[in-house]
Amino acid sequence: MTEDGQQPAGDLAARRGPASQQDMRRQNLALVMRTVAAAHPLSRADVAGRTGLTRTAVSSLVDELIGGGLLLEGELERSGRVGRPGRALVLNGNGPAGLGLEIGVEHLSACVIDLRGEVRVELHRPAANAGRPAEQTLAELAELAARAEDEAVALGLRVVGRVLAVPGSVPLGSPGRRVEHAPNLGWHQVDVTELWPGPGAAPAVENEANLGALAELWQGTGSGTFVHISAGEGIGGALVLDGRLFHGVQGFAGELGHLTVRPQGRTCSCGARGCLEPYAGLAAVLRSAGIVDEPDGPGGAAYPAHRQEPDPIAELARRAEEGDADVRRALEHAGTALGTALAAAVNLFDPATLVLGGGYADLAKWLLPAMRAELAGLIRVRPWPEEALRASPLGRRGPVLGAALVTVRRLHSDPAGLWLPEAV
Amino acid sequence: MTEDGQQPAGDLAARRGPASQQDMRRQNLALVMRTVAAAHPLSRADVAGRTGLTRTAVSSLVDELIGGGLLLEGELERSGRVGRPGRALVLNGNGPAGLGLEIGVEHLSACVIDLRGEVRVELHRPAANAGRPAEQTLAELAELAARAEDEAVALGLRVVGRVLAVPGSVPLGSPGRRVEHAPNLGWHQVDVTELWPGPGAAPAVENEANLGALAELWQGTGSGTFVHISAGEGIGGALVLDGRLFHGVQGFAGELGHLTVRPQGRTCSCGARGCLEPYAGLAAVLRSAGIVDEPDGPGGAAYPAHRQEPDPIAELARRAEEGDADVRRALEHAGTALGTALAAAVNLFDPATLVLGGGYADLAKWLLPAMRAELAGLIRVRPWPEEALRASPLGRRGPVLGAALVTVRRLHSDPAGLWLPEAV
Description:
Two copies of one chain form a homodimer. The first copy, chain A, has helices spanning 21-39, 44-51, 55-67, 134-154, 192-195, 208-219, 277-280, 282-288, 312-321, 325-349, 359-362, 364-378, 398-413; strands at residues 71-75, 87-91, 96-103, 107-114, 119-126, 158-166, 178-182, 187-191, 204-207, 226-231, 235-241, 244-246, 353-358, 389-391. Chain A is 37% helix and 19% strand. At the A-B interface, helix 1, strand 11 and helix 10 of A face helix 1, strand 11 and helix 10 of B.
């Protein structure tokens, strides 16, 4: 997809052709936007000082951004200073905004985030999405999306981009409209754009783990280069390198659930043996804790047949908190396996941090000690401070927040994209 | 280091300030240079057509590049065409050039590569570098470098950049002058710039595995995103992502030798258990083949105490070719362990290819079958064609070629760097 921050439309680096005056203006609009976003309120003179642009250039660029509804200019409070008060530039909190949507196995979510990164609308609805036709799920989601947009309009906001988080694979190359495979929903090659009931534009789709990682990058504890591992229905992994989501050449990067942690060990749903998923996936933990029965067949794809609990992660956390020895042991074993896999990720790609997200964040208290012990044992060729492994503060909200933030970040990195054609 | 192609000096994307006319010219000089490099000979009109720049702009840019000694213009042969023959632009094969240097445990190498990527000078000298003072090794290397530069001058070339490949870790952040740790040389915190005897500028230093991977990217079979694994003294790993070497946040990315392949298995020189190195490192293979004795202590750091052969890789290849069952079995086991580690790299990074380089390339015939079988068993969530694993055509020459090519590539990506100050 083009909206995930990987290739901001105005980024000259992505261009192969000659630099033009229009490119320069577009780049400088982005520079002003980023400068105000990083430290507003700022006066026009402050912007000139921080960017190195002339005051005349700044004024013209600022006027264009105000005209586009991206910036506001008001009275600047300068307590204790003498002289005429300046005018202050701030991001327009009631201007363009991003809509984030999420399809989970048992819920639908929507949220609207404004240009300042604040969540202004947040809706959540239980929904039995596993196994029902994609059309039905998308129809219900479209209603929720319309309600969220209505609420946003009532707040003075204008939704200019829509992104949907799905628990499945989204191929590269497509314009982010097709879900290749979402086993826990029973989706296979679902074209969201085609099935979207309207009115309103269909959302671009992206994998939930990737969006969770982006949310972590933009609003959580993730630094520029980190590995994000999350438990949704499967195990989601994502690599953020130098502030960008890394997809790999076919969109399969970050498959942490299928790293071999116990060679010749348990058979995984993927067909290989010894993968992380049959040791640390949610289904494996529930079985090992005695909360659900052993499955008939091999592998970790135990959902939904073997699931009794409406919110198994909350159930695990509750029992662990109460001191249930089976649950605690199951989480400890999962933590060790997670540590084995993440040690490989650290040795391969030298991240600043590891972030435990999604459902794992709610279980961090019982997972982290075993993970830290395993990491300390296996990472010896470089320093590895134990605090470099962190639980996400966003937890299970990550994917839907990330979906909305994609649009907000795009507006920051290429504000002129609102009124200029997509850069080639 | 700034010379490894990661941040070409003229790349506007790396800049934080406003775009200026000088930036535009610098970027357009690079565009013309890259265009000619990709498909010379070209006429000025061809360059205009391919870049989208006006003919007037192209002429001014071409004149500057000719003035800088980077391009030459001569008669264009246009067989079968009518009309006035055009003038043809080509890269200047007798202009600025790159010097590559290499320190191995038992040799020193130097080579000079011209702007067209052709090796013009190549020198190799046996040298017992293990354990002797760094000053001595660097003094001998400086002599070899001077001889290579003299030969280059005699050919009409001018060396404008020097890079040294070392079998050790080079920290990020330093300007590529300090070797943190090169255990097989006995080097610890060696400042090459400080110890360089002169005359002539000291080379920038970079890890040999990284340079081998860059050589593979630029002249071998490596595509834009691949994992390079090589046997030098240890196991060298490097990640090339979207055409750039990925260092990680502290410069430790690509530590394939320390991925866990056999949990709770053999103790590695790093202190962890079950790493790849004690299963597939050169010392491990030599022991397992019965060519050297078992070491007294744990781990793979068997060099040089346990080494009898002057060229153990050639010795392994010779015996395997002759049908020595012990050697073949040792290589098969090493191949399986390499496959386990590389499967993790594929599941994490989703590369286009895996490249077996350095000494492993000379042993590929006996390593590849076991590697391919292991990869096929462990990579199940994505397609993995067996030909995506390849042996490098550069083999053990990779690092020194990569070292010289760093300068050549920099001249292609930022030709104006020769006469303008480094871009900020």
